[in-house]
Amino acid sequence: MKIILKHEVSGLGTAGDVVDVKDGYARNYLVPRGFAIRWTKGGEKDVAQIRRARKIHEIATIEQANEIKAQLEGTKVRLAVRSGDAGRLFGSVTPADIAAAIKAAGGPEVDKRRVELGSSIKTLGSHQVSVRLHAEVVAKLGVEIVAA
Asked: What does this protein do (predicted)?
């Protein structure tokens, strides 16, 4: 099935790409979650609009990505969350929480879809988080989770 990606999907493509995937993957995962729309002849107008929007939000050059990487790695990020007595969190920390904490700490604005967690964060303490700024640039960021 041909689809048009609305968001970047790891291993598949970026927003505005027209890709061919298995029917079940498109029907059961990509389309319901809003990552893609079905391709039609009239959908070519949508492709152009999605690509224009992507250019506005995307980091254009590697130099620009390296500047943002330097800003991110120099930022101290602390996130206060509710936790139990043993240091386990009520729930877990999401990429959206980390993106908001980076902005609150005075760092650059980061899209939550670019924040990659190695595993879910469910305990207090220091954790490593990756932020994929460009296809070739990944910033490693230390996030300290503290009790609220």
From this structure: Binds to the 23S rRNA.
